[in-house]
Design goal:
The complex is a heterodimer. Chain A is mainly beta. In chain A, 0% of the residues lie in helices and 51% in strands. The chains are: A mainly beta, B mainly beta.
Chain lengths: 112, 113
């Protein structure tokens, strides 16, 4: 049973560039949430997608956007990258009405 | 919004001793409290969770207690082993089913053999 898969695993970008991160949820899950985890800190909620719509959003600027596809996979896009966007980006999937999350291994983004 | 504080930030224990991590939350609407273990370079993994209609839950060497009145919950690990060394995160959510989690800042646990 495939868990949550994220790609790429590591990424280095330059300030001002744009990046797209991808997530495939665990089989049977229909909801995808994205978190940013800065070094030494707890994950911070970015947003959540269900039925191809953004359902909830955390305290992140509009530079962070997302998408969910009909097969439940999701993308996280970040525009105009800042040095402070360097972090581990975690995707978590869940089943609407179910319990808990399954996290992916994350994408380590470094902005230079 | 919800705010979760976690203490201590680091915890060093001797193998076989117990470890306790405490969290407080601010939103009385929160009713789901999971704990995650994150080993270096790996994904957070759910180790135990509790709902607000339950005061305590155990799973082998791990237990979680919840005090709704005081808005705090704790993780207890007994008979610690070196493989328990990791960063532990508490979290709170106003809804168990796929709603957003607010995480604490994490506790780095080191179990010394």
């Amino acid at each position: 049973d495939a868990g949550v898969t994220q790609s790429p695993t590591h990424l280095i970008k330059t300030r001002g560039q744009q990046v797209t991160l991808r997530c495939s949820p665990k089989s049977g899950h229909d909801t995808v949430s994205w978190y940013q985890q800065a070094l030494g800190q707890g994950p911070q909620f970015i947003f959540q997608y269900y039925e191809e719509e953004e359902r909830q959003r955390g305290n992140f600027p509009d530079r962070f956007s997302g998408h969910q596809f009909p097969n439940y996979s999701s993308e996280l896009n970040v525009n105009a990258l800042l040095l402070g966007d360097s972090a581990l980006y975690l995707c978590a999937s869940s089943l609407a009405g179910g319990l808990g999350y399954t996290f992916g291994s994350g994408t380590r983004l470094t902005v230079v | 919004g919800e705010n979760v504080e976690q203490h201590p930030s680091t915890l060093s224990v001797q193998e076989g001793d117990s470890a306790v991590i405490k969290c407080t939350y601010s939103d009385s609407a929160s009713n789901y409290f999971p704990w995650y273990k994150q080993e270096l370079g790996k994904r957070p993994q759910l180790i135990i969770d509790i709902r607000s209609n339950v005061g305590e839950k155990k799973d082998q060497r791990i237990a979680v207690t919840l005090n709704k009145t005081a808005k705090h919950f704790s993780l207890h690990i007994t008979e610690t082993q070196p493989e328990d060394s990791a960063v532990y995160f508490c979290a709170a959510s106003p809804k168990a089913a796929g709603n957003k989690l607010t995480f604490g800042g994490g506790t780095r646990v080191l179990v010394k053999p």
